[in-house]
Prior knowledge:
By secondary structure, the chain is an alpha+beta fold. Helix content is about 40%, strand content about 15%. It has four domains: about 80 residues; about 160 residues, no CATH class; about 190 residues, no CATH class; about 60 residues, no CATH class. The chain is elongated, with a radius of gyration of 36 Å.
Amino acid sequence: xxxxxxxxxxLEDITNxxxxxxDTEDDFDPAENSGDQSETKDVCxxxxxxxxxxxxxxxxxxxxxLRLSSSSDESDCQxxxxxxxxxxxxxxxxxxxxxxxxxxxxxxxxxxxTGYAKRxxxxxxxxxxxxxxINRQIIDHIRICTxxxxxxxxxxxxxxxxxxxxxxxxxxxxxxxxxxKNIKLSYLWSEKWGPSFFRNTMxxxxxxxxxxxxxxxxxxxxxxxxxxxKFVLISHVWNSFIENSQNCYVPGPxxxxxxxxxxxxxxxxxxxxxPNKPNKFGIKFWLASDLQTKxxxxxxxxxxxxxxxxxxxxxxxxxxxxxxxxxxxxGRNVTTDNFFTSKSLALKLLEKRTTLVGTIRGNxxxxxxxxxxxxxxxxxxxxxxxxxxxxxxxxxxxKATKKVLLLSTKHTSVSIEKSKKQLPETIAFYNKxxxxxxxxxxxxxxxxxxxxxxxxxLQVFFNILDLAAINAWVLYKETTGENISRKDFLxxxxxxxxxxxxxxxxxxxxxxxxxxxxxxNIRKTCQIGFxxxxxxxxxxxxxxxxxxxxxxxxxxxICKKCDDTNNK
Length: 568
């Protein structure tokens, strides 16, 4: 009884199968299908349950054969092209889905400031974020090297306290926030034209002395280290800055890699000339930044030929693999421009569970012939999609005489926007993710601490301070949730750094000072700055600096700065 109860249901299924097969009869030769029709008739006439089940299996096999034959016919119709290096490209339809993206290339991580950063950043104190990037170890290293250079030049000890160096940094950041990099220092310290912040924080002579003597390496060890490190004059500071930045922040799923040309004409062996940049001369840096926050996560300078790079590895691949080394294997995506992108790089990154999206140059040997043609019959705003070895190539005719070539391992299929430009999905994704490093560089140039100097290590230090301020700003906002503009952040940072230095306003009242002048046995240059660097033996009773008669108030030996501050 149970077996006979299944017969009506099987007959209904077989009837449905006959209707499906009848739709495909026109595609076959009647002579070839005559046996099939009789076969199906026999199935319908049969009333035995065992024969019904066997015929059912035969029909299923027949349908499977039909599907395979139809799919093979479609694959034969697909257009294939062979590139010069033997790469076989298969043309696919836009919007088709030839495969699924591997789950290993999907990012599933925690992003944002690390626990170390969250524990040390205090809301309302922006310098707490800055001192995580430019920490006390970097400051102490610079102070030691600077004092050694001053002793070599002057022949006597020259003090540079930690508070005084913080005040020096405060003036640099305030100068950048005011956007006064093209204004002479004399105007900034002028009582008539300049802001009072500069005069109250540090004298102009002290500031220029630090600029004169500041160094970032020990000169007695330089010759030995130059044999293995061309960047030795400031490599310790740069490497510490990158390490501190990486310890404080975890980037998101999208990372942008690009070049930065820091504008300078300093005397340097590795100064680059790039005519397509706004500032054509400068020092080139390879940078990797987080797309969402523009936080710099890695970088190193371009110093010419690198002995550590194997000759078989192109420079573009070497740069990308080195920048992404610490963040590979987590399912992130890397966006690059046409200098870096290649099929071999895309496959190497895919092995590290990292996808690549980037424009590619038309002279690559792995590209099909259509991508290399300068003249073609493609209409404007049309797209051609090719696929090979988990790589998807998009050829988009953006202009009448220009094609955009884009290689992606992130997209297995490419959909087309229903708009006038018919923009492919890959092109739209690239436009959203390509701007990380460019925007970081634009932000750095807006409020740059850069000053004129022919010493390239000092110019690199200015670039470090610009990038460190951006990273500290991102850390502070992400940790505290405070929405503060970058200009306000820089002004507040300058104010907090300047309070580390003893200000004349914090000195005791002038009535409690010594009424007798202090005199030094050696004549030295006046350190106040209102004169033409006169020689003097008098010392100010307030700030203990050498002061000449022109910069002195006659009621007692006290400089004009200390007197004005006290009267306020």
